[in-house]
């Protein structure tokens, strides 16, 4: 795969020009972004792959849900349905996508969870509800410039910083690095625990934020407990198990489990993998399966796995959280 990326390098300038030109059309209002009269917060990235959008959306939900009626709007990647879908009791990971289904399972009593590949259409449908949302969170919509989000949060991972990368197909960037200029906040995610102030200062200098941009650093916090649909186990009590992942980058999770001295084998699947019956037949031979919360949403309905399937939750720990929350509230406050 890496070799193929290298031989496709001549396409890089073409991709760069196309995406750069598209952005300029929006920058100069030749193509028009639609603005709305309610707070819309966009969480996204410049690169493909996992940068921690899902835990960041959950952080925002937790921060705002007690004071505002929140709606999340996602594309619903790899879902079996089309058009606008509002999550309800009959929704599944297949019908609305694994990440939106995760939001719904965790926060269904507090928020709306919707999917629509056309974000303008999705927002219009949300605003047609009898009880309208007061804040909309756009998941993975940084390049969806048909909507003018009032507050853009750009995520970049500590181990794959966007300013060290190039655009597709040789690199991982969806658009040129200059796209970072649209962000109100840039968050360096998945930082090592105890990242030094010197390291943060160096990265911030390399980012070169504009005067109106703030840079924050976050890390992943793993729970000390794994959960099934009706039980839980302390990590320290886990017997040898099989780790099953279908996420963009499982390395941080694998390293965390190793630091705990746990014995496990790892079965790694592609990101957003749709598990098949034959996969389940192989997995059911294991006595204990640990997976991510996102993968749990796609596996939990397989009856043969219910008694042995557990997930490990994660949360985001944000440095200077008070400063970030103040910026957030200043934007959302009417």
From TrEMBL:
Task: Report the sequence similarity comment from the record.
Answer: Belongs to the LpxK family.
Keywords linked to the UniProt accession? ATP-binding, Kinase, Lipid A biosynthesis, Lipid biosynthesis, Lipid metabolism, Nucleotide-binding, Transferase
Q: Give, as one word, the top-level EC class.
A: transferase
Q: What is this protein called?
A: Tetraacyldisaccharide 4'-kinase
Question: In the UniProt record, does the keyword Amino-acid biosynthesis occur?
Answer: no
Report the catalytic activity: a lipid A disaccharide + ATP = a lipid IVA + ADP + H(+)
Can you supply a Gene Ontology BP term from the record? lipid A biosynthetic process
What is an example of a GO molecular function annotated in this UniProt entry? Answer: ATP binding
**Which pathway does this chain act in?**
Glycolipid biosynthesis; lipid IV(A) biosynthesis; lipid IV(A) from (3R)-3-hydroxytetradecanoyl-[acyl-carrier-protein] and UDP-N-acetyl-alpha-D-glucosamine: step 6/6
- One GO cellular component term, please give it: plasma membrane
Q: Which residues bind ATP?
A: 47-54
Question: What role is this protein assigned?
Answer: Transfers the gamma-phosphate of ATP to the 4'-position of a tetraacyldisaccharide 1-phosphate intermediate (termed DS-1-P) to form tetraacyldisaccharide 1,4'-bis-phosphate (lipid IVA).
Q: Name one Pfam family in it.
A: LpxK
The EC code for this enzyme is 2.7.1.130
Q: Which InterPro entries match?
A: LpxK (IPR003758), P-loop_NTPase (IPR027417)
Does the entry feature the keyword Membrane, yes or no? no
